[in-house]
Amino acid sequence: MRRAFLAILKRDLALAARAGGGGELALVFFLTLVVLVPFALGPDLNLLSRIGPAILWLGALLATLIGLDRLFQGDEEDGSLDLIRASALPLELAVLAKGLAHWLTTGLPLAICAPLLGLLVALPAEAMLPIAGTLLAGTPALSFIGAAGAALTASLKRGGLILPILVAPLTVPVLIFGVSAANSALGGTVPFLTPFLILCALSLAAIVVGTIAAAAALRQAD
Fold first, then answer.
1. Residues 6 or more apart whose Cβ sits within 8 Å of residue 44
2. Long-range contacts for 17-26 (Cβ within 8 Å, ≥24 apart)?
C-alpha cells in the first residue's frame, strides 16, 4: 500500500515537471500579480506595506486555482482514474497522494518565493519569514479544498470553468486567517500565534475533509 501511494505521488510529480504548466505557471501568475499591483496603487510605500500580506495571500489563492482542473481530469480522460479506483489502494489515500503532489508543485514553491516577492510590496525584513510561514501552513488547505472541487468536476468537459466558482468561496476562512496572521507579523494587535494556529487547524481539517469529499465524489462519478 505504501508503494502504491508513493508511486502515485512520484507519477504526479513527474507529470507536473514534464508538462511545465503546473507549478511554473502558478509562480509566473503569482509574480505577475505581485508586480502589477504596486504599479496600480502608486509609490505609496506605507500603503503597500499595509496591504502587502493581503496581496501575497490573494496571489497565492489565485495561483493555486490554476491547474486544479488537471488534478483528476487528465486521469479521467486517459483511463488512469479507473485503474486507481480498481487498485487495492484506498481511494482516499490515492487522493491524498495527488493532493500532496499538487501542494509540493504549487503551494510549497509559492511559500518559498514569498519572502523575495515581499520586497516588491515594501514588507519589512522581520516580517518575511512569518509571512512565508503563514503561506506554508495555509496553502495545503487551498490544495485539498481544490481537490474536492476538482473531483466534482472531473467528468465535466468544461469543468475548469466551474471549478474556481466552486472552490473560491470555500477558501475564504483560509484567506481571512492567513491575512490576519500575516498582519500580526507586522505588529498588529492580535498575537501572531492565535490566527496562525487557527490557520494550521484549517489546513489539517481541509486535508481530512477534502480527501474524504474528493474520494466520495470520484466514487459517485464512477
1. none
2. 17/105, 19/70, 21/67, 21/70, 22/67, 22/70, 22/102, 22/105, 22/106, 23/105, 23/106, 23/109, 25/66, 25/67, 26/63, 26/64, 26/66, 26/67, 26/106, 26/109, 26/110
What is the residue-level pLDDT of the chain in tens, covering all 222 positions?
788 889 889 988 888 777 555 667 888 888 888 888 888 887 778 888 888 889 999 999 988 888 787 788 777 777 788 888 888 888 999 999 999 999 999 999 999 988 888 888 888 888 889 899 999 999 999 999 999 998 888 877 766 678 888 898 999 999 999 999 988 888 767 888 999 999 999 999 999 999 999 999 888 865
- Rounded CA-CA distance 186/131 in Å is 9
Instruction: Report pTM.
Output: 0.90
d(CA 4, CA 60): 30
Please write down the HEC assignment for all residues of 22-39.
Answer: CHHHHHHHHHHHHHHHHH
Helix (H, G, I), strand (E, B) or coil at 1: coil
Residues in the chain: 222
